[in-house]
Amino acid sequence: MRKKWLMLALVVLALGLLVGSGEAYENANGVGYFALQVPNPAAMRLDGLDSDWAWFDPAYIVGPDQMANTLGNPIPPKSDIDIAIKAGWTPEPDNQLYVFVKVVDDSLNVDTTVMDNGWQDDNMEIILDPDHAGGWHEAADALRTGHQQWTFSVATPGGYPQIAWLRFNQPPTMQWAINEGLVKAAVNVDPPAARGLTMAANVTVGYEVTMPCWDPYMPDGLAASTRWVLRSGQTLGMSVTLDEADGGGRTDQLSTHIKETGAHDSDFTSEFTLLATGEYATSVEPSSWGAVKALLQ
């Protein structure tokens, strides 16, 4: 029954795209995205490698063909950059978001040392509006209590001092979830010798994040903030974005939202719907997601 419900819901979403939608949220694929329930959180290892993601149904992996270039450029060819996004979640008591992003890049550019300027280099962003309420129309450097831009970079000696950072121009008090180890991240670089270089050719980078969601997320810390409870069927305002640089600054920005505005305006963020374990069986042929993609073609 759950599988049939999911298929119906996805078809309705797709048909909504075809006839037009009044929703302000902007999904680059025109439909929305999905986060799959992690079957065994204890088996997940935060190391920037996806060997513990074998359970993830490949039909739900997000690639460049389901993303937009927010700078208005064409999507770069896969020979330049290829991306595979896997999003997961767990209900209480774990109640966390899991994200793994694999990037195969013809050139890894990491030469900025200021955390707030990570967008000028190759880096990854997770943008969250957990209550999916929209209405956040603040400036990029406003206090990010209701719409957070979590960013993840390749940390190196003499380069970025740490992996995770809450952007943009936030006061030090807003970094508490990272400083207290609640937002956890790992980045793996292959070949390892590429780490520490400002420019390296033909590199594979694995960004892996495990974190709670908060809405609101307050500068006064955990006690003043509200941890969002993740549930099956819930839709989060959420975008995953990759900044791409080939030397001399950012050249492209690939995201699940359409406009660069989605980084700081929740009405332009994309959407991820949370699916429970029984709602995404690989035994479904054709897969629900594959059927929707076929419908849109």
Structure description:
- There is one protein chain.
- The protein has 297 residues and is mostly beta strands.
- α1 (2-19) runs parallel beside α3.
- The two termini are 27 Å apart.
- It has helices at residues 2-19, 176-179, 288-296; strands spanning 33-37, 68-69, 81-89, 97-109, 123-129, 148-152, 164-167, 184-190, 199-211, 235-245, 250-255, 271-275.
- The chain contains 3 helices and 12 strands; from the N terminus they run αβββββββαβββββα.
- Strands 1, 2, 3, 4, 5, 6, 7, 8, 9, 10, 11 and 12 form a 12-stranded mixed beta sheet that branches.
- A hairpin with a 4-residue loop joins β10 (235-245) and β11.
- It has a single domain (25-284), classed as Sandwich (Immunoglobulin-like), CATH 2.60.40.
- The model is unreliable at 1-9, 11-23, 282-287 and 293-297 (pLDDT under 50).
- The chain is globular.
Short synopsis of the structure:
With 297 residues, the protein is mostly beta strands.
